[in-house]
Amino acid sequence: MFSLYVQYYDYNTYGCYYILKNYDIIREYNNQYKSKFTDEYTDWIARWFYQKPEYYHSDNVTFKILGDWHETYSGPFYYVKY
Questions:
Q1: In 16, 43, 44, 63, which residue has its Cα 20 to 30 A from 1's Cα atom?
Q2: Are 49 and 63 in contact (CB under 8 A)?
């Protein structure tokens, strides 16, 4: 379990608060890409999640990471023609 402080702005009281949030990271091996996320720096995932106003009040969130960084397409960039 990891913890970090998230900045929360309350529009009702016009105050800025720092709230301690807890989260957990589960790294799983992905058979399709044959990889596992090994990067130790994972704060950005929780900060990205908790910056959304609809998730301010959630706590003890578990993030499951399947695989590692990868490209989802292998061909050249293409344009969609209408």
A1: 16
A2: yes
pLDDT higher than threshold 70 for residue 71: no
Instruction: Specify the pTM.
Output: 0.65
C-alpha dihedral (23, 28, 30, 33), degrees to nearest 10: 70
DSSP 3-state of 21: strand
Checking phi first, is residue 29 left (phi over 0); if not, alpha (psi -120 to 50) or beta? beta
Cβ-based neighbour number of residue 35 at 10 Å = 14
Residue with tokens 């957990």: 24
pLDDT at 81: 55
- Round to whole Å and give the CA distance between 63 and 39: 14
